[in-house]
Amino acid sequence: MSVEQRVYHYSAVMMGSPILLTLFENNESLARDVFRLIKQQENLFTVNRAHSEVMSVNQAAGVHPVVLSAPVFSLICQAKAVSLLANSCFNLTIGPLVKRWKIGFQGDRVPPADEIATLLAITDPRQVVVDVDTQSVFLTQPGMEIDLGAIAKGYIADRVRDYLRQQQVENALINLGGNVHTLGGVQASNGWAIGLKKPFAAADALVGVIEVRDKSVVTSGIYERYFMQQGRCYHHILDPKTGYPLDNELLSVTIISDRSLDGDIYTTLLYGMGVVQGSAYLADKPDIEAIFVTRDREVIFSSQRQFAFQLLDTDYRLSPLPQA
Ligand code: AMP
Ligand code: MG
After folding, report:
1. What is the model's pLDDT at position 2?
2. Strand, helix or coil for residue 289
3. From edge to edge, which strands make up the β-sheet containing 172-176?
4. Residue 3, pLDDT above cutoff 60
5. CA 300–ligand 1 middle distance (angstroms)
6. Among the four residues 88, 104, 234, 269, which has the most C-beta atoms within 10 Å?
7. What is the pairing mode between strands 298-301 and 317-319?
């Protein structure tokens, strides 16, 4: 006989997204502490307000280095390293282009090509000078801007997971607007059931359900933020080589991993690589797995060791990994 467990949901809107915390106890003070922690972390990384540590680096671009706290310095160093990987489409200095495109915000339309070319010239990650001795970061060209929007939520989700563990919470789920982190699982089942959104459909429409225990599940999809112009879809993941949205066979990439920061990094990286190259890239990383959803309505796993998947939408089909 299974005992029905009561779940308690706590929600807030932060970082421009709905944040959801699910616990198995009625503990409002814990929920408040979690939301406070998220707010504190957001205040370090945001580029959507005038003041944050990252903004102070951007405001000093071309002028002087800025000394940072250990977490911000470390995340910038990691973001720079990922940006410098061969053929990486992740670029921590994509900021000026993100601001110019304004995708998903009022006034978003395709910028003139010459403006994109000008801004591309100030998105070179090698121009981010990090100094380990002083823990400072210097952007060498005026106008350069770091944007950690692709990975800050992953980093913060990991901090929430650590905090909940410290508080001896065994079962919980945090959803930071697309970045889901889980502790334990729901009793008498495989774990937590996490919906994989159906692209360009109703908010609650699902392609399928992913079941995990003690894992992060991060999805990056082109349907999350986009605008249409002359019948073309312009979405929020930009190709640092061209300055335009990345264009390939994918609608979304989901990463299942232990660290949500890895999930966030690899969703962007693999989005740029596509199914074949992306899966090959994960071959020697058994703890990191991807679920690709393609424009042809295929759902493809790089491997399947750490999760169960139930397909719900018959418009989509599970397909084997194509051979390179
Ligand atoms: P996510 O929601 O995790 O997929 O991240 C999307 C956000 O990452 C965008 O809204 C931008 O702020 C930022 N971004 C867009 N293109 C890139 C890129 N090529 N490299 C790094 N960050 C990006
Ligand atoms: Mg991301």
Report:
1. 44
2. strand
3. 8-14, 17-23, 172-176, 179-183, 216-221, 250-257, 289-294, 298-301, 317-319
4. no
5. 23
6. 269
7. parallel
Distance 275 CA to ligand 1 centre (A): 19
> Among candidates 300, 243, 237, which has minimal Cα distance to 271?
237
Query: Is the Cβ atom of 221 under 6 angstroms away from ligand 1?
Result: no
Say if ligand 1 is within 6 A of residue 93 CB: no
The pLDDT value recorded for residue 167 is 97
Q: Which atom of ligand 1 is nearest to the CA of 103?
A: 10
Q: Are the beta carbons of 43 and 37 closer than 8 angstroms?
A: no
Q: Is residue 303 over pLDDT 70?
A: yes
Q: Residue 283 Cα, ligand 1 centroid: separation in angstroms?
A: 24
* Phi, psi of 100, deg, nearest 5: -70, -40
How much is the pLDDT for 187?
65
Between CA 256 and CA 274 the distance in angstroms is 17
264: Cβ below 6 Å to ligand 1? yes
Contacts of residue 309, Cβ cutoff 8 Å, sequence gap at least 6: 208, 209, 210, 211, 291, 299, 301, 318
Q: Could you say which ligand is closest to the alpha carbon of residue 245?
A: 1
For residue 220, how far is its CA from the centre of ligand 1 (angstroms)? 9
* Residue closest to 82 by CA, chosen among 217, 245, 267, 290: 267
DSSP 35-75: HHHHHHHHHHH-SSSS-SHHHHHHHTTTT--EE--HHHHHH
What does the alpha-carbon distance between residue 219 and residue 140 come to, in Å, rounded to a whole number?
A: 33
Q: Is the pTM of this model over 0.85?
A: yes
Each residue's pLDDT tens digit, 173-188: 999 988 999 999 876 5
Q: Kindly state the tokens that stand for 21.
A: 């915390």
Rounded to the nearest angstrom, the gap between the alpha carbon of residue 229 and the centroid of all alpha carbons in its chain is: 25
The contacts of residue 72 (CB under 8 Å, 6+ apart) are: 44, 45, 53, 54
